[in-house]
Design brief:
Elements (H helix, E strand, L loop, with lengths): L24 H8 L4 H7 L4 H6 L3 H7 L4 H8 L2 H6 L2 H8 L3 E3 L4 E5 L6 E6 L4 E2 L8 E5 L7 E5 L5 E9 L4 E11 L1 E5 L2 E5 L11 E7 L4 E6 L8 E10 L6 E9 L9 E10 L4 H4 L3
Antiparallel strand pairs: 1-2, 2-3, 3-15, 4-7, 5-6, 6-15, 7-14, 8-13, 8-15, 9-10, 11-12, 11-14
Length: 284
Amino acid sequence: MGANMSVGVSDTDPPLKPRLDDIPESCVALVLMYLDPPDICRLARLNRTFRGASSADFIWESKLPPNYLYIMERLFDEEALVKFRKKDIYARLCRPNSFDNGTKELWLEKSTGDVCVAISSKALRITGIDDRRYWKHISTEESRFQTVAYLQQIWWLEVDGEFEFQFPAGTYSLFFRLQLGKSSKRMGRRVCDSEHIHGWDIKPVRFQLTTSDGQHAVSQCYLDNHGNWVYYHAGDFVVRNTNALMKINFSLTQIDCTHTKGGLCVDSAFIYPKSVGEEARLFL
């Protein structure tokens, strides 16, 4: 009765525009592999294809440190090695992970996957630490370990540390986190007790670092920043072989016995990739 009507697309109709959903998931994953982890996570929110692609194991294995299996064995039990996908491993390692009876922490810098380590004052050898005339451990929310070593007064200051680890290849810096004065909260406000601070303006504190492959660094400076946590740079070291254990010995000393010194809080030692800037360290 009437002409047949075609419901198909005619030759004169404009071509359909491709959509993000039309891109194969495998192609999306290949592109995501070249992005930083935060960008991958942001793009995963676009749609189902990007979300699925962002979980590909080969993407996150490329972001993990080359020796991540060693790190996992050092931190977790064997079950964790097999039950996690690579994305889950990366996320887990980006959180602070305590080990050695809670005296150390390791985490990855989220954007780069670089390894960072913190070593509590309780894992350091501090001369006179067991004599309450000189030292005492005090609790504080200002330490990631919830405790610091506080020096009241001493003639001979010596704090030594040792750490053995398989670091990924790169250049690393070691810092001591110190504060002159004992901080606390009163009426909800932070206050710092400077009662015992003395002796730091007479002679500088000496920082030293040595490694098992013969590297050596020495620096010294006066401690003069009252009431603030300061990262004091002890030195840098270079790791060339990712698969080799490296032992690091480090220390801070002020052993001029012509005068006493006191009022110092020793929080911890930190090992960061040298590429991590000062501002970034404050948020790690």
